[in-house]
Amino acid sequence: MEQPKRKQTRLGNFDYGQNGAYFITICTQNRERILSDIIVGEGFPLPRLTAKGKIAENLILAVNEKFHNVKIDNYIIMPDHIHIIIQIQNGIGNPNGRGDPSPTVVTVGNVVGWLKYSITKQINEAYGMAGNKIFQRSYHDHIIRNQQDYNEVWEYIENNPAKWVLTHKTG
After folding, report:
1. How many domains does the chain have?
2. 20 to 30 A Cα–Cα from 22, which one of 70, 76, 116, 132?
3. What global pTM score does this model have?
């Protein structure tokens, strides 16, 4: 029996190493709620990171140490997914001389691949779960095209916990 063909998730003929901002969503394997809990208190709902979510956050914050041409503008770690705005700034050099050697031209795929691999490796090491899948095979990307688009994505990230409360059972 022939395997079904996977849907192409990237925009054809687009250079994902091009300078600009990208909105990325990475989902956990089987949408398991392992990264955070959404806490509804007196104020705005917020994620409370689990130990696995804290590992993910530490590695998100380490992205610009690993890739000197990349800046994380905003992110949120939800129970079963992560939203990130990645800013790629190829050609700016490495003025601090810090970070691991990284490709001359960094792509969205380089960054997401490193994040997924590193988070999975650290979680598996911490919990003695060699070979356990933490994330789904691919990721969703949206090329941010202008300031209005950027503002809308930023607002979406900020409002994601409130949206979660409306669409999921919490607790």
Report:
1. 1
2. 132
3. 0.84
